[in-house]
Design goal:
Layout lengths: L2 E5 L4 H12 L3 E6 L6 H11 L3 E5 L8 H6 L7 E4 L7 H6 L1 H29 L3 E5 L12 H21 L5 E6 L2 E2 L14 E2 L1 H14 L3 E3 L3 H10 L3 H4 L5
Parallel strand pairs: 1-2, 1-4, 2-3, 4-5, 5-6, 6-9, 7-8
């Protein structure tokens, strides 16, 4: 039975991804800062899908612990999905470096720290797949997502480079860009229905992308074209817009 590691496993998207892999006969390793919160979900997953599910303490911002965290995993995962990330208020992040630094480290630096370790293991074993949850917000810098978008842009570029690096070693890297998603974090927001995915859609998209070895996936297809339009707005016009 193959194994999937979910990094940042307490979010609605992460739980949906875990369910999708479990129902497709994957053992599941759930890694989170407060992994004990997932004990009920762990039990449900094991009973519902008859798979092994283990909990692991993992803090994306404690870079020095990442090597030991990965070394203690047994078995080593066949697929690693990096879900963790933070989206704080942009005005606060712009004026408060502590908030900006936390967002950058959560969305980019922490991912690079742990995924470098995972990638080296896969490189040596000549197999494996990494899926990173990035964002359409990283496709072009905008004032409304100044810090969040730029940190996700960095993550997307890193995943592109990692895919290029690991291809010769039979290791695949998938970049997933969900767009708007209905979660506990967004329940107070008025989101456009046609552009907003359910967590289960994200789970299905990630699993399908891993199985089919896709490179970059937009959970709702229209985001690809929306962002293509935004990326092609001339700069002299774009800089005057409030996006």
């Amino acid at each position: 039975m193959p194994t999937v590691l979910i990094l940042g496993a307490t979010s609605d998207m992460a739980l949906a991804i875990a369910r999708t892999f479990a129902k497709n006969n994957y053992s599941v390793q759930l890694a989170a800062r407060n992994a004990s919160r997932l004990s009920g979900f762990q039990t449900d997953l094991q009973l519902r899908y008859n798979v092994t599910c283990t909990l692991h303490e993992f803090d994306a911002l404690q870079f020095g612990t990442h090597q030991a965290f990965f070394e203690q995993l047994s078995p080593k995962p066949d697929v690693t999905v990096c879900v963790f990330g933070v989206m704080d208020e942009e005005d606060l992040a712009f004026s408060n470096w502590d908030i900006a630094e936390r967002m950058i480290n959560s969305n980019f630096t922490g991912a690079v720290s742990i995924l470098n370790i995972v990638a080296k293991h896969y490189q040596q074993s000549k197999s494996g797949c990494i899926a990173g949850i990035s964002s359409v917000a990283g496709e072009r810098g905008r004032q409304s997502k100044l810090i969040y978008g730029s940190s996700k842009a960095a993550l997307s570029a890193y995943l592109d480079g990692l895919r290029n690096l690991l291809f010769k070693d039979n290791v695949h890297v998938v970049t997933v860009k969900p767009g708007f998603v209905y979660t506990k974090m967004t329940e107070s927001l008025k989101l456009p229905g046609i552009l907003t995915a359910k967590p289960e859609e994200v789970g299905d998209a990630v699993f399908s992308a891993v199985q089919k070895k896709k490179n970059t996936v937009y959970v709702r297809w229209m985001w690809r074209w929306i962002m293509l339009i935004i990326k092609n707005i001339p700069e002299f016009q774009f800089k005057k817009m409030k996006l």
